[in-house]
Design goal:
CATH topology of one domain: FAD/NAD(P)-binding domain
Strand content: 15-25%
Distance between the termini: 20 Å
Keywords: FAD, Flavoprotein, Oxidoreductase
Protein name: FAD-binding domain-containing protein
GO molecular function, one term: FAD binding
Organism: Lithohypha guttulata
Number of helices: 12
Pfam families: FAD_binding_3 (PF01494)
Oligomer: single chain
């Protein structure tokens, strides 16, 4: 009997976790993972892995590698435009690019997993046969020829602007829930003052700049810009088209000469080759699958950075989908995956403070910034005074319960 051929479009966190557990479960699965970026291209922000996602990562037996890649960031400080700081808090961080590399290599170690970088899906059509297939056209960067291949199942793990979703389900405005915010992140050359704490500064008109160390011996610092304002046509248009040069120029116009580290950050942003910018939106779909194609991670639900749940859901969702496909490698798996996970995802998508959290943490006026900083300082002092030492990396904490059905984990992989 031929193997079940599964295509995973996207080699990010969710795509690689899915590929790993599918391969671990059975050699009867043949998994192809497509990724439009280069194999060694590291993008993304700092992140924490907490429960219940941490349990999934532990099952991959990669914790020792991840411990070695911790950024070592010791705390978080809010500073003003003259770099006076307030309120350290603890943090244990990984860089997203480091995590995705470890996950990719763990999955790629299986003989039945094949990663194909710098490759994109050009079209996707499901056949009408009784035991149908998904016919996919794939093109490798720099090549004119397009290959046509058939798969039994396809999973789109290709992010908020998922091409898989657009090809299979269309593109409805009703599925996008903008939060009135824009984010950009990129790397800049590290300076001695960047270590060991991450530092952030508010500017009026809802602008926020954040610098985070990526490691004591790293040569780079991770930079983030957040702007909470819909009335910026140049930035909106640049993000809509994906034109990086225009994105950078629009952000330079917004953040240049603000004070603190703005001059340095903007100068280096204009040179950065790992720059990413987009409007922050949530994705809310009526269903996560259609026929033999399912969506995973941000392609299906995109909770946004303001919830703090994006990476957790990517890992948990991949585990659940792999588990269900291992039990029934038909479209029934997609139905059960969504039934188990949807309520939990919708809970995690809720923006804290009744949805007002983004506006409160990125104030508009000098008074608002002063009030936020004052409250933050008091809270940081109180936490430092009363809170026990934060658990070491790898222990995690449970914010929202979810049954991973780990009791059914067998030596093979995911159990039946």
């Amino acid at each position: 009997m031929p193997p079940t051929k599964i295509l995973v479009n996207g080699a990010g966190i969710s795509g690689s976790v899915l590929a790993f557990f599918l391969a671990k479960h059975s050699p009867k699965f043949s998994i192809t993972v497509l990724e439009r970026s280069r194999a060694n291209q590291k993008l993304g922000q700092g992140l924490e892995i907490e429960e219940p996602a941490l349990t999934v990562v532990k099952a991959m037996e990669i914790m020792d590698q991840l411990q070695q890649l911790r950024t070592g960031e010791l705390g978080f400080r809010l500073v003003d435009k003259r770099a006076r700081s307030r309120g350290p808090t603890g943090a244990l961080e990984l860089m997203r690019g480091d995590l995705t590399e470890v996950l990719y290599k763990a999955a790629d170690a299986f003989e039945n997993v094949n990663y194909r970088f710098e490759s994109t899906v050009k079209s996707m059509v499901e056949t009408e046969k009784e035991k149908g297939k998904v016919v996919v056209e794939i093109q490798k960067r720099g090549e004119e020829n397009v290959s046509t291949e058939e798969f039994d199942l396809v999973v789109g793990a290709d992010g908020v602007r998922s091409t898989t979703r657009q090809m299979v389900m269309g593109d409805s405005r009703d599925w996008y829930k903008p939060l009135g915010a824009y984010v950009a992140y990129f790397s800049i050359p590290k300076e001695d003052r960047d270590w060991p704490d991450s530092k952030a500064c508010h500017f009026t008109n809802r602008r926020f700049m954040w610098l985070r160390p990526t490691g004591e011996h790293s040569k780079q610092t991770s930079a983030y810009l957040i702007h909470m304002n819909n009335n910026v046509p140049a930035l909106h248009e640049a993000n809509a088209t994906g034109d990086r040069a225009k994105q950078k120029q629009a952000l330079a116009d917004l953040f240049s000469n603000c004070g603190w580290e703005s001059k340095r950050v903007i100068e280096q942003m204009l040179k950065a080759d790992n720059f990413y910018s987009d409007e922050i939106v949530q994705i809310k779909l009526p269903t996560w699958s259609k026929g033999r194609v399912a969506l995973l991670g941000d392609a299906a639900w995109a909770p946004t950075p303001f919830t703090g749940q994006g990476n957790q859901l990517a890992i948990i969702g991949a585990w659940v989908l792999a588990q269900e496909i291992s039990r029934d490698s038909s479209t029934i798996a997609f139905e059960k995956y969504e039934k188990r996970l949807r309520e939990y995802v919708e809970e995690c998508q809720q923006i804290p403070l009744g949805g007002y959290m983004p506006a409160l943490v990125v104030p508009e006026t000098r008074l608002g910034i002063w009030l936020f900083r004052t409250v933050f300082s008091i809270m940081a002092w109180f936490i430092k005074l009363t809170q026990r030492k934060k658990p070491a990396a790898g222990s995690g904490k449970v914010d929202k319960p979810f049954d991973l059905q780990m009791d059914k984990l067998e030596s093979k992989g995911l159990g039946q």
